[in-house]
Amino acid sequence: MTQSDRPLRPRTLQVRGGLARTQFKETSEALFLNSGFVYDSALEAEQSFDGTLNRMVYSRFKNPTVAMFEARLAAIEGAPACKATATGMAAVHSALLCQVRAGDHVVASRALFGSCQWILTELMPRYGVTVKFVDGTDLDQWRTALSQPTRLVFLESPSNPTLEVIDIAAVADLAHKAGAVLVVDNVFATPILQSPFSLGADIVVYSATKHIDGQGRCLGGAVLGSEEFCNDVLGPYLRNTGPTLSPFNAWVLLKSLETLDMRVERACAGALKLAQFLESRAEFSEVLYPGLPSHPQYELVKRQMRGYGTLIAVELKGGKQVAYDLLDKLEVVDISNNLGDSKSLICHPWTTTHQRLSAEDKLAMGITEGLLRLSVGLEDPDDLIDDFALALG
Ligand SMILES: *Cc1c(COP(=O)(O)O)cnc(C)c1O
Q1: Could you read off the pLDDT tens digit of each residue along the chain, which spans 393 residues?
Q2: Minimal-distance CA residue to ligand 1 atom 11
Q3: Architecture in CATH of 261-392
Protein backbone atom coordinates (compact mmCIF):
# COMPACT_ATOMS: atom_id res chain seq x y z
CA MET A 1 0.00 0.00 0.00
CA THR A 2 1.24 3.49 -0.81
CA GLN A 3 0.12 6.72 0.77
CA SER A 4 -2.88 8.16 -1.04
CA ASP A 5 -2.56 11.11 -3.43
CA ARG A 6 -6.34 11.53 -3.45
CA PRO A 7 -7.66 14.71 -1.86
CA LEU A 8 -8.76 13.69 1.63
CA ARG A 9 -11.41 15.23 3.86
CA PRO A 10 -10.43 17.31 6.92
CA ARG A 11 -11.29 14.59 9.43
CA THR A 12 -9.02 12.16 7.62
CA LEU A 13 -6.26 14.77 7.37
CA GLN A 14 -6.42 15.21 11.16
CA VAL A 15 -5.14 11.65 11.58
CA ARG A 16 -3.12 11.15 8.41
CA GLY A 17 -2.01 14.58 7.16
CA GLY A 18 1.77 15.00 7.09
CA LEU A 19 2.42 11.38 8.14
CA ALA A 20 5.96 10.47 7.05
CA ARG A 21 6.89 6.95 8.13
CA THR A 22 10.48 5.82 8.56
CA GLN A 23 11.93 2.56 7.18
CA PHE A 24 10.55 0.80 10.30
CA LYS A 25 6.95 1.46 9.17
CA GLU A 26 5.70 2.46 12.62
CA THR A 27 1.93 3.00 13.03
CA SER A 28 2.12 6.13 15.13
CA GLU A 29 4.26 9.12 14.21
CA ALA A 30 7.94 8.80 15.18
CA LEU A 31 9.46 11.15 17.74
CA PHE A 32 12.82 12.45 16.53
CA LEU A 33 14.26 13.79 19.77
CA ASN A 34 17.54 14.97 18.27
CA SER A 35 19.16 18.35 17.83
CA GLY A 36 21.45 17.61 14.90
CA PHE A 37 22.00 15.33 11.89
CA VAL A 38 25.13 13.69 10.47
CA TYR A 39 26.62 13.59 6.96
CA ASP A 40 28.29 10.71 5.15
CA SER A 41 30.96 13.02 3.74
CA ALA A 42 32.27 16.57 3.92
CA LEU A 43 30.85 17.15 0.45
CA GLU A 44 27.38 16.07 1.64
CA ALA A 45 27.64 18.59 4.50
CA GLU A 46 28.61 21.33 2.04
CA GLN A 47 25.75 20.46 -0.30
CA SER A 48 23.29 20.41 2.61
CA PHE A 49 24.23 23.99 3.40
CA ASP A 50 24.36 25.36 -0.15
CA GLY A 51 20.93 23.92 -0.97
CA THR A 52 22.03 21.30 -3.52
CA LEU A 53 20.67 18.65 -1.15
CA ASN A 54 17.29 19.12 0.49
CA ARG A 55 17.80 17.48 3.88
CA MET A 56 17.67 18.15 7.60
CA VAL A 57 20.74 19.89 9.07
CA TYR A 58 19.77 21.17 12.51
CA SER A 59 16.57 21.02 14.57
CA ARG A 60 16.44 24.80 15.01
CA PHE A 61 15.78 24.90 11.23
CA LYS A 62 13.85 21.70 10.66
CA ASN A 63 13.10 18.41 12.44
CA PRO A 64 11.10 15.45 11.08
CA THR A 65 8.56 15.39 13.95
CA VAL A 66 8.08 19.17 13.88
CA ALA A 67 7.70 18.97 10.09
CA MET A 68 4.90 16.38 10.46
CA PHE A 69 3.05 18.67 12.87
CA GLU A 70 3.45 21.60 10.46
CA ALA A 71 2.23 19.57 7.48
CA ARG A 72 -0.77 18.18 9.38
CA LEU A 73 -1.90 21.56 10.70
CA ALA A 74 -1.47 23.12 7.23
CA ALA A 75 -3.58 20.32 5.74
CA ILE A 76 -6.36 20.83 8.31
CA GLU A 77 -6.32 24.61 7.86
CA GLY A 78 -6.14 24.37 4.07
CA ALA A 79 -2.99 26.52 4.09
CA PRO A 80 -0.09 26.12 1.65
CA ALA A 81 2.53 26.22 4.43
CA CYS A 82 3.04 26.28 8.20
CA LYS A 83 5.88 27.06 10.61
CA ALA A 84 5.69 25.82 14.19
CA THR A 85 6.99 27.83 17.15
CA ALA A 86 7.72 27.21 20.83
CA THR A 87 4.67 29.16 22.07
CA GLY A 88 1.72 31.09 20.73
CA MET A 89 3.48 34.34 21.57
CA ALA A 90 6.53 33.25 19.56
CA ALA A 91 4.11 32.72 16.64
CA VAL A 92 2.46 36.14 17.01
CA HIS A 93 5.78 37.89 17.61
CA SER A 94 7.57 36.40 14.64
CA ALA A 95 4.58 36.66 12.27
CA LEU A 96 4.40 40.40 12.97
CA LEU A 97 8.05 41.38 13.50
CA CYS A 98 9.37 39.53 10.45
CA GLN A 99 7.31 41.86 8.26
CA VAL A 100 7.79 45.37 9.65
CA ARG A 101 10.53 47.94 9.58
CA ALA A 102 10.95 51.49 10.92
CA GLY A 103 8.40 53.87 9.43
CA ASP A 104 5.73 51.20 8.86
CA HIS A 105 2.15 51.64 10.03
CA VAL A 106 0.11 48.87 11.70
CA VAL A 107 -3.62 48.80 12.50
CA ALA A 108 -5.03 46.39 15.10
CA SER A 109 -8.24 45.69 16.95
CA ARG A 110 -8.18 46.86 20.56
CA ALA A 111 -9.50 43.68 22.21
CA LEU A 112 -6.43 41.46 22.16
CA PHE A 113 -4.67 38.86 24.28
CA GLY A 114 -2.48 40.75 26.81
CA SER A 115 0.93 39.88 25.37
CA CYS A 116 -0.20 40.64 21.80
CA GLN A 117 -1.17 44.07 23.10
CA TRP A 118 2.29 44.48 24.65
CA ILE A 119 4.01 43.70 21.34
CA LEU A 120 1.92 46.37 19.61
CA THR A 121 1.99 49.07 22.30
CA GLU A 122 5.45 48.57 23.82
CA LEU A 123 7.70 46.71 21.40
CA MET A 124 6.77 47.96 17.93
CA PRO A 125 7.07 51.69 18.76
CA ARG A 126 10.65 51.05 20.02
CA TYR A 127 11.56 50.14 16.45
CA GLY A 128 9.80 53.10 14.86
CA VAL A 129 6.59 51.30 13.88
CA THR A 130 3.38 53.25 14.50
CA VAL A 131 0.30 51.37 15.70
CA LYS A 132 -3.31 52.48 15.59
CA PHE A 133 -5.99 50.63 17.59
CA VAL A 134 -9.64 50.46 16.56
CA ASP A 135 -12.83 49.02 18.01
CA GLY A 136 -12.79 45.80 15.99
CA THR A 137 -16.57 45.61 15.68
CA ASP A 138 -16.85 49.10 14.13
CA LEU A 139 -16.15 48.99 10.37
CA ASP A 140 -16.12 52.81 10.16
CA GLN A 141 -13.14 52.89 12.52
CA TRP A 142 -11.33 50.30 10.38
CA ARG A 143 -12.14 52.36 7.25
CA THR A 144 -10.72 55.56 8.78
CA ALA A 145 -7.62 53.86 10.18
CA LEU A 146 -6.97 52.12 6.85
CA SER A 147 -7.31 55.28 4.77
CA GLN A 148 -3.49 55.58 4.87
CA PRO A 149 -0.93 53.11 3.52
CA THR A 150 -0.55 50.29 6.06
CA ARG A 151 1.88 47.40 6.30
CA LEU A 152 -0.02 45.06 8.61
CA VAL A 153 -3.45 44.53 10.09
CA PHE A 154 -3.77 42.31 13.17
CA LEU A 155 -6.94 41.07 14.79
CA GLU A 156 -8.33 38.34 17.02
CA SER A 157 -11.88 37.00 16.57
CA PRO A 158 -13.63 36.02 18.78
CA SER A 159 -11.58 38.21 21.08
CA ASN A 160 -10.16 37.65 24.54
CA PRO A 161 -11.89 37.97 26.98
CA THR A 162 -15.08 39.70 25.82
CA LEU A 163 -15.76 37.50 22.77
CA GLU A 164 -16.24 40.31 20.29
CA VAL A 165 -16.59 39.02 16.75
CA ILE A 166 -15.00 40.92 13.87
CA ASP A 167 -16.17 40.82 10.25
CA ILE A 168 -12.98 39.25 8.88
CA ALA A 169 -14.01 39.41 5.19
CA ALA A 170 -14.84 43.13 5.42
CA VAL A 171 -11.60 43.96 7.27
CA ALA A 172 -9.59 41.84 4.79
CA ASP A 173 -11.02 43.90 1.94
CA LEU A 174 -10.16 47.22 3.63
CA ALA A 175 -6.70 45.95 4.61
CA HIS A 176 -5.87 44.87 1.05
CA LYS A 177 -7.01 48.23 -0.36
CA ALA A 178 -4.56 49.91 2.06
CA GLY A 179 -1.77 47.60 0.84
CA ALA A 180 -1.71 45.70 4.13
CA VAL A 181 -1.28 42.03 5.00
CA LEU A 182 -4.03 40.69 7.29
CA VAL A 183 -2.87 38.53 10.20
CA VAL A 184 -5.60 36.73 12.18
CA ASP A 185 -5.08 35.22 15.64
CA ASN A 186 -7.55 32.31 15.34
CA VAL A 187 -7.00 30.79 18.79
CA PHE A 188 -10.51 31.20 20.18
CA ALA A 189 -12.14 29.85 17.01
CA THR A 190 -9.70 26.97 16.35
CA PRO A 191 -9.21 25.54 12.81
CA ILE A 192 -12.42 23.57 13.38
CA LEU A 193 -14.80 26.52 13.75
CA GLN A 194 -13.38 29.22 11.49
CA SER A 195 -11.23 29.37 8.34
CA PRO A 196 -9.75 32.89 8.11
CA PHE A 197 -8.05 32.15 4.76
CA SER A 198 -11.43 31.57 3.12
CA LEU A 199 -12.49 34.98 4.49
CA GLY A 200 -9.50 36.76 2.94
CA ALA A 201 -6.84 36.58 5.67
CA ASP A 202 -3.22 36.30 4.49
CA ILE A 203 -1.68 34.80 7.62
CA VAL A 204 -3.19 32.81 10.51
CA VAL A 205 -1.52 32.35 13.90
CA TYR A 206 -2.25 29.88 16.70
CA SER A 207 -1.29 29.26 20.26
CA ALA A 208 -1.20 25.46 20.04
CA THR A 209 -1.11 25.50 23.85
CA LYS A 210 -4.86 26.06 23.80
CA HIS A 211 -7.33 23.77 21.99
CA ILE A 212 -4.71 22.11 19.75
CA ASP A 213 -3.00 20.46 22.73
CA GLY A 214 -6.15 21.04 24.70
CA GLN A 215 -5.04 18.79 27.54
CA GLY A 216 -2.85 21.15 29.55
CA ARG A 217 0.45 19.46 28.70
CA CYS A 218 2.67 21.70 26.64
CA LEU A 219 3.17 25.08 25.01
CA GLY A 220 3.36 25.54 21.26
CA GLY A 221 2.44 27.84 18.42
CA ALA A 222 2.07 27.99 14.65
CA VAL A 223 2.03 30.48 11.78
CA LEU A 224 0.30 29.56 8.52
CA GLY A 225 0.49 31.34 5.18
CA SER A 226 1.76 31.14 1.62
CA GLU A 227 4.87 29.13 0.72
CA GLU A 228 6.58 32.36 -0.24
CA PHE A 229 5.82 34.02 3.10
CA CYS A 230 6.72 30.97 5.20
CA ASN A 231 9.92 30.15 3.30
CA ASP A 232 11.28 33.57 2.32
CA VAL A 233 10.00 36.04 4.95
CA LEU A 234 9.16 34.13 8.13
CA GLY A 235 11.61 31.24 7.56
CA PRO A 236 14.87 33.27 7.83
CA TYR A 237 13.45 35.18 10.82
CA LEU A 238 12.70 31.95 12.72
CA ARG A 239 15.89 30.19 11.64
CA ASN A 240 18.09 33.02 12.88
CA THR A 241 16.20 34.09 16.00
CA GLY A 242 15.37 30.55 17.18
CA PRO A 243 11.85 30.34 18.72
CA THR A 244 11.70 26.71 17.52
CA LEU A 245 9.15 24.16 18.74
CA SER A 246 10.74 21.23 20.61
CA PRO A 247 10.31 17.88 18.81
CA PHE A 248 8.77 16.39 21.94
CA ASN A 249 6.11 19.08 22.13
CA ALA A 250 5.56 18.78 18.37
CA TRP A 251 4.88 15.07 18.84
CA VAL A 252 2.35 15.75 21.63
CA LEU A 253 0.63 18.38 19.47
CA LEU A 254 0.69 16.14 16.38
CA LYS A 255 -1.14 13.39 18.27
CA SER A 256 -3.54 15.99 19.71
CA LEU A 257 -4.59 17.09 16.23
CA GLU A 258 -6.04 13.59 15.69
CA THR A 259 -8.85 14.35 18.16
CA LEU A 260 -9.15 18.13 17.71
CA ASP A 261 -12.58 18.21 16.09
CA MET A 262 -14.10 15.71 18.55
CA ARG A 263 -12.82 17.67 21.53
CA VAL A 264 -13.79 21.09 20.17
CA GLU A 265 -17.28 19.97 19.10
CA ARG A 266 -17.92 18.28 22.45
CA ALA A 267 -16.78 21.37 24.40
CA CYS A 268 -18.85 23.66 22.15
CA ALA A 269 -22.00 21.66 22.87
CA GLY A 270 -21.31 21.92 26.61
CA ALA A 271 -20.57 25.64 26.35
CA LEU A 272 -23.88 26.36 24.60
CA LYS A 273 -25.84 24.45 27.24
CA LEU A 274 -24.00 26.16 30.09
CA ALA A 275 -24.34 29.62 28.47
CA GLN A 276 -28.10 29.11 28.17
CA PHE A 277 -28.26 28.18 31.86
CA LEU A 278 -26.13 31.16 32.93
CA GLU A 279 -28.29 33.50 30.85
CA SER A 280 -31.35 32.30 32.80
CA ARG A 281 -29.81 33.39 36.11
CA ALA A 282 -30.52 36.81 37.61
CA GLU A 283 -27.01 37.13 39.13
CA PHE A 284 -25.50 38.12 35.77
CA SER A 285 -25.97 41.46 34.08
CA GLU A 286 -24.48 40.00 30.90
CA VAL A 287 -23.69 36.58 29.44
CA LEU A 288 -21.53 36.83 26.34
CA TYR A 289 -21.41 33.72 24.18
CA PRO A 290 -21.31 33.77 20.37
CA GLY A 291 -24.00 31.07 20.25
CA LEU A 292 -26.64 33.08 22.12
CA PRO A 293 -29.03 35.19 19.98
CA SER A 294 -28.33 37.98 22.53
CA HIS A 295 -24.68 38.17 21.36
CA PRO A 296 -24.19 41.56 19.62
CA GLN A 297 -22.74 39.93 16.48
CA TYR A 298 -24.88 36.78 16.42
CA GLU A 299 -25.77 37.11 12.71
CA LEU A 300 -22.10 37.60 11.77
CA VAL A 301 -21.11 34.62 13.94
CA LYS A 302 -23.50 32.38 12.01
CA ARG A 303 -22.12 33.64 8.69
CA GLN A 304 -18.45 33.46 9.59
CA MET A 305 -18.08 30.52 11.98
CA ARG A 306 -19.08 26.84 11.87
CA GLY A 307 -19.67 26.71 15.64
CA TYR A 308 -19.79 29.01 18.62
CA GLY A 309 -16.66 28.20 20.56
CA THR A 310 -15.73 26.97 23.99
CA LEU A 311 -15.44 30.33 25.81
CA ILE A 312 -18.08 32.26 27.71
CA ALA A 313 -17.76 35.65 29.42
CA VAL A 314 -20.13 36.61 32.22
CA GLU A 315 -20.55 39.86 34.04
CA LEU A 316 -21.71 39.57 37.65
CA LYS A 317 -23.89 42.19 39.21
CA GLY A 318 -22.00 43.41 42.27
CA GLY A 319 -18.46 43.47 40.90
CA LYS A 320 -15.21 41.99 42.17
CA GLN A 321 -16.18 40.56 45.57
CA VAL A 322 -19.20 38.76 44.16
CA ALA A 323 -17.03 37.45 41.32
CA TYR A 324 -14.41 36.19 43.82
CA ASP A 325 -17.12 34.50 45.93
CA LEU A 326 -18.34 32.62 42.87
CA LEU A 327 -14.81 31.54 41.87
CA ASP A 328 -14.07 30.31 45.39
CA LYS A 329 -17.29 28.31 45.65
CA LEU A 330 -16.93 26.40 42.35
CA GLU A 331 -15.85 22.81 43.01
CA VAL A 332 -15.60 21.28 39.54
CA VAL A 333 -14.47 24.29 37.50
CA ASP A 334 -10.85 25.24 38.29
CA ILE A 335 -9.53 28.77 38.73
CA SER A 336 -6.89 29.12 36.01
CA ASN A 337 -5.82 31.66 33.42
CA ASN A 338 -5.30 28.99 30.74
CA LEU A 339 -8.05 28.14 28.24
CA GLY A 340 -9.05 25.63 25.59
CA ASP A 341 -8.42 22.75 28.02
CA SER A 342 -10.28 19.48 28.58
CA LYS A 343 -10.89 20.77 32.13
CA SER A 344 -13.23 23.73 32.55
CA LEU A 345 -11.29 26.77 33.73
CA ILE A 346 -12.40 30.17 34.95
CA CYS A 347 -10.54 33.41 35.63
CA HIS A 348 -11.05 37.02 36.66
CA PRO A 349 -9.36 39.00 33.82
CA TRP A 350 -9.34 42.34 35.72
CA THR A 351 -6.91 40.98 38.35
CA THR A 352 -5.07 38.29 36.34
CA THR A 353 -4.66 38.20 32.55
CA HIS A 354 -5.28 41.93 32.11
CA GLN A 355 -3.99 43.15 35.51
CA ARG A 356 -1.16 45.12 33.90
CA LEU A 357 -3.52 47.43 31.96
CA SER A 358 -4.85 50.68 33.42
CA ALA A 359 -8.46 50.73 34.62
CA GLU A 360 -9.26 53.02 31.69
CA ASP A 361 -7.77 50.62 29.13
CA LYS A 362 -9.55 47.64 30.70
CA LEU A 363 -12.89 49.42 30.57
CA ALA A 364 -12.24 50.42 26.93
CA MET A 365 -11.81 46.68 26.19
CA GLY A 366 -15.07 45.84 27.97
CA ILE A 367 -13.29 44.32 30.98
CA THR A 368 -15.05 45.27 34.21
CA GLU A 369 -14.42 44.20 37.82
CA GLY A 370 -17.37 41.81 37.64
CA LEU A 371 -16.27 40.04 34.42
CA LEU A 372 -15.32 36.35 34.46
CA ARG A 373 -13.95 34.35 31.53
CA LEU A 374 -14.93 30.72 31.43
CA SER A 375 -13.31 28.09 29.21
CA VAL A 376 -15.60 25.09 28.92
CA GLY A 377 -13.96 21.67 28.89
CA LEU A 378 -15.08 18.12 28.27
CA GLU A 379 -16.95 17.40 31.50
CA ASP A 380 -20.65 16.52 31.44
CA PRO A 381 -22.32 19.93 31.01
CA ASP A 382 -24.92 18.99 33.64
CA ASP A 383 -22.12 18.75 36.23
CA LEU A 384 -20.94 22.20 35.19
CA ILE A 385 -24.48 23.56 35.47
CA ASP A 386 -24.82 21.96 38.93
CA ASP A 387 -21.48 23.46 39.94
CA PHE A 388 -22.64 26.98 39.03
CA ALA A 389 -26.12 26.46 40.49
CA LEU A 390 -24.68 25.38 43.85
CA ALA A 391 -22.02 28.12 43.89
CA LEU A 392 -24.57 30.80 43.05
CA GLY A 393 -26.88 29.49 45.79
C1 LIG B 1 -2.83 32.08 24.75
C2 LIG B 1 -2.96 33.00 23.61
C3 LIG B 1 -1.83 33.50 22.95
C4 LIG B 1 -0.43 33.17 23.42
O5 LIG B 1 -0.14 31.81 23.40
P6 LIG B 1 0.97 31.11 24.35
O7 LIG B 1 1.01 29.71 23.84
O8 LIG B 1 0.49 31.23 25.75
O9 LIG B 1 2.25 31.84 24.15
C10 LIG B 1 -2.02 34.36 21.88
N11 LIG B 1 -3.25 34.72 21.47
C12 LIG B 1 -4.37 34.26 22.08
C13 LIG B 1 -5.69 34.67 21.59
C14 LIG B 1 -4.27 33.38 23.16
O15 LIG B 1 -5.37 32.93 23.78
Answers
A1: 556 678 899 999 999 999 999 999 999 999 999 999 999 999 999 999 998 999 999 999 999 999 999 999 999 999 999 999 999 999 999 999 999 999 999 999 998 888 999 999 999 999 999 999 999 999 999 999 999 999 999 999 999 999 999 999 999 999 999 999 999 999 999 999 999 999 999 999 999 999 999 999 999 999 999 999 999 999 999 999 999 999 999 999 999 999 999 999 999 999 999 999 999 999 999 999 999 999 999 999 999 999 999 999 999 999 999 999 999 999 999 999 999 999 999 999 999 999 988 999 899 889 999 999 999 999 999 999 999 999 999
A2: 113
A3: Alpha-Beta Complex (3.90)
Helices of type H across the chain: 10-16, 42-50, 64-77, 88-97, 114-118, 124-126, 139-145, 168-177, 190-193, 227-228, 235-241, 247-257, 260-279, 298-304, 319-329, 359-364, 381-392
Closest residue (by CA) to atom 4 of ligand 1? 88
Amino acid at site 144: T
Of ligand 1's listed atoms, the one at least distance from the Cα of 209 is: 7
- Range 10-259: architecture per CATH: 3-Layer(aba) Sandwich (3.40)
